[in-house]
Amino acid sequence: MTVAVVGIGLIGGSLMVDLRKRGFADKIIGVDTNMHHQNIALLCGLVDENDTLDNAIEKSDLIILTTPVNTNCRMLPGILDKIQGTTKVVTDMGSTKASIAEVSKNHPARGRYVAVHPMAGTEYSGPLAAIGKLFDYKTAIICDKELSDNDALIKIEQMLDLLNMHKVYMNSGDHDVHVAYVSHISHITSFTLALCVLEKEHEEQNILTLAGGGFESTVRLAKSNAETWAPIFLENSKCILEVMDTYIEKMNSFRKKISEKDINGLKALMEEANKIRKILN
What we know:
about 55% helix, about 280 residues
């Protein structure tokens, strides 16, 4: 199988590593507007060749979109135009799905598209961040599977099985609500904490000296690429704003208990939060 990966970054590069090693792809074509990324991918053996999007579509059996979510939305209708009437399949790895579902829902080739969100990643970006086994034992969410042709769905499921991913199915709207709570708010919280520290603590050495494991783990996501995450926040703004309102409400509850020196109230809030252990353990 010839696979085109559009967007040679952490997700795209890591896919390239495992799809090649595990025998899913005979040939991998990279598509990226960043010449530096193209050169790294070629030198590191992530791709067999780099090409334009149009040429890659023509040469490939499977097209995987791993660009920012707004770029995926912009490209998908044109790709569906080109693969209509063929056995080619296109999928995306974006972490929002409602917008891309909307732009593709009435396309006559909608069945050739399978919407996927792998719940995997790191705070790093670019092709040099690509690692093998990034997706192993992580969850892959397939959205609106009933809109995909059976053979297209099977091909993507086979790919996810090869990546050792646990498959979950849901519709695009539900997906965006759930990821706003479990993923997107975590990144906003991390960015916000980093901004607070950088504004109030002007001595870098103090940050380095006093930063413990808790701070490092909480602020880790603030290293994430703005080019990736700004479009996600905007594409999923309705759900994220609802989550942020809830988050601010809970933060104000803590503020109130602390200002009132209400130790029992604080303990009650924390003990309620401790219940998350039953889910995550």
